[in-house]
Amino acid sequence: MALTREDVLRAVDEWLWVPEDAERVDTPDGVLVRWPTWFEHPASLMRFHPVGDPAEALAGFCAQARDRGADRLQVWVTLDADPALEGVVRAAGGSPEETLAVLALDLTAARPDLGPAPGLELRRDDHDLATHADYYRLNAEVFGGSMPAEEELRASLARQVPEQWSVIAYEQGRAVGSGGITVAGDVARLWGGCTLEEARGRGVYRAVLDARLRAGADHGCTMALVKGNTATSGPILRRAGFTAYGEERLFQVPLG
Question: Alpha-carbon distance 161 to 203, whole Å?
Answer without folding.
Answer: 28
